[in-house]
């Protein structure tokens, strides 16, 4: 278990000296960044070359033979985790910050399924992303320079095959694209931190897997849940996303948030009506990350979205995909519509967005104000 997250979560918690776990992402991220950097870099004042050299075979983190054989048989050469990581780091990483929410372009790494089954190490992905960014700023505790500098140094000392990665600590990025690469890498590493944050919650929040028992969801309804699953709500972005999910097993992160929030808030369904559907459909399904996403979307759990902040799928669609390319791709009946009207709900839409938003705010305000049910009465 300790190798699933990037940080060793028990040691991290001890390292922070806190009695209570972090409940909010930003302070967690700040502490996590410093911790991870200190664990992946040698102690201050020690050069990597002065450390005993580990055998290269260890540094390459070889997969267990059985898993490697199964992967070779099941996954085409070009789609292997390491290849995919290389392609992403050498390509889309630079524009990741700018494009990650532009779901029509799907600029994510697509690595979640490999990270989730352990076919790709989160630590290796982290260190290689830092290398790619070649960031060298030692001053900022959130900066990536320390680890990147160490990695570059180690690359020389240990003769790893990392072309172009050799930079001394403290040196500036060599070309203008390095600043973009740094932004891309920071933004991507932040997502790896979100992954750790949900794993951390699962470890330290005793309620993480039983909020539905602690909170009274009985006032909510599954009336429209099936229409949502089948992409028949009449709200184009929701229907397009649910069609993609059903057809391919994939769904970009922003659309997971929008569709989950729409089900929980606008359609007033309990999150437990949607969580198992994602479980069945997602190729990268992971019990902890899926639950974390659903808790966030339904304003439950640590650092959940506030109950009054509800994403409007039409506003989101106009913002992240102004031409409506994504809707046209998944809903052919909308392919010929103008950019102005393609995002608009159909006349037969299940709910009016404004009215259902107001209803959700009122309902969740009351629901979250009720005291949690004590656990000892549950058994
Ligand atoms: C309702 C909901 C359900 C989700 N269910 C799952 C699930 O079952 N399995 C799963 O792997 N992810 C889940 N996520 C998180 C996220 O949507 C996916 O990890 C991401 O879309 C995977 O695409 P990628 O590999 O291209 O990510 P990238 O954008 O390349 O990000 C890199 C890695 O960071 C991690 N990551 C990215 N975004 C998040 C996030 N919001 N929360 C936690 N970790 C993140 C993933 O491991 C990902 O592979 C869910 C999110 C929501 C809102």
From TrEMBL:
According to the record, the segments passing through the membrane are: none
One of its Pfam families is FAD_binding_7
Q: Which GO terms describe its molecular function?
A: deoxyribodipyrimidine photo-lyase activity; DNA binding; FAD binding
**Which InterPro entries did the record assign?**
Crypto/Photolyase_FAD-like_sf (IPR036134), Cryptochr/Photolyase_FAD-bd (IPR005101), Cryptochrome/DNA_photolyase_1 (IPR002081)
Species in which this protein is naturally found: Paenibacillus albicereus
Please give the name of this protein.
Deoxyribodipyrimidine photo-lyase
Question: Per its Swiss-Prot or TrEMBL entry, what cofactor is needed?
Answer: FAD
Does Lyase appear among the keywords? Answer: yes
This entry's comment on the bound cofactor is: Binds 1 FAD per subunit.
Positions of FAD binding: 96, 188, 191-198, 284-286
**Protein family membership:** Belongs to the DNA photolyase family.
Q: Where is the Cryptochrome/DNA photolyase FAD-binding domain?
A: 188-366
Q: Which PANTHER family match?
A: CRYPTOCHROME (PTHR11455), CRYPTOCHROME CIRCADIAN CLOCK 5 ISOFORM X1 (PTHR11455:SF9)
- Swiss-Prot/TrEMBL keywords: Chromophore, FAD, Flavoprotein, Lyase
């Amino acid at each position: 278990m300790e190798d699933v997250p990037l940080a060793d979560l028990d040691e991290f918690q001890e390292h922070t000296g806190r009695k209570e776990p972090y409940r909010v992402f930003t302070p967690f991220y700040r502490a996590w960044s410093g911790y991870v950097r200190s664990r992946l870099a040698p102690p201050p004042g020690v050069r990597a070359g002065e450390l005993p050299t580990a055998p290269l075979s260890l540094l390459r983190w070889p997969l267990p033979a059985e898993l490697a054989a199964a992967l070779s048989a099941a996954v085409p050469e070009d789609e292997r985790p390491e290849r995919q990581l290389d392609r992403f780091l050498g390509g889309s990483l630079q524009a990741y910050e700018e494009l990650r929410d532009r779901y029509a372009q799907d600029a994510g790494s697509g690595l979640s399924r490999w990270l989730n089954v352990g076919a790709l190490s989160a630590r290796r992905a982290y260190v290689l992303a830092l290398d790619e960014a070649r960031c060298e700023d030692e001053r900022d505790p959130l900066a990536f320079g320390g680890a990147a500098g160490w990695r570059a140094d180690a690359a020389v000392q240990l003769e790893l095959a990392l072309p172009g990665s050799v930079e001394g600590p403290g040196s500036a990025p060599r070309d203008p694209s390095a600043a973009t690469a740094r932004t891309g890498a920071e933004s991507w590493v932040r997502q790896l931190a979100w992954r750790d944050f949900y794993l951390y919650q699962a470890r330290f929040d005793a309620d993480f897997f039983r909020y539905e028992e602690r909170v009274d969801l009985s006032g909510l309804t599954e009336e429209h849940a099936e229409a949502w699953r089948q992409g028949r709500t009449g709200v184009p972005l929701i229907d397009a996303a649910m069609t993609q999910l059903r057809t391919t097993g994939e769904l970009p992160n922003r659309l997971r948030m929008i569709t989950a929030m729409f089900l929980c808030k606008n359609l007033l369904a309990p999150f437990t009506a949607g969580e198992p559907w994602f479980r069945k459909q997602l190729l990268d399904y992971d019990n902890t990350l899926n639950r974390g996403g659903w808790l966030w979307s339904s304003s439950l759990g640590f650092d959940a979205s506030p109950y009054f902040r509800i994403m409007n799928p039409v506003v989101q669609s106009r913002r992240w995909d102004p031409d409506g390319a994504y809707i046209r791709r998944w809903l052919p009946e909308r392919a010929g519509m103008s950019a102005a009207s393609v995002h608009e709900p159909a006349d037969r839409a299940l709910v009016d967005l404004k009215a259902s938003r107001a209803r959700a705010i009122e309902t969740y305000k009351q629901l979250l104000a009720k005291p949690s049910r004590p656990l000892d009465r549950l058994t």
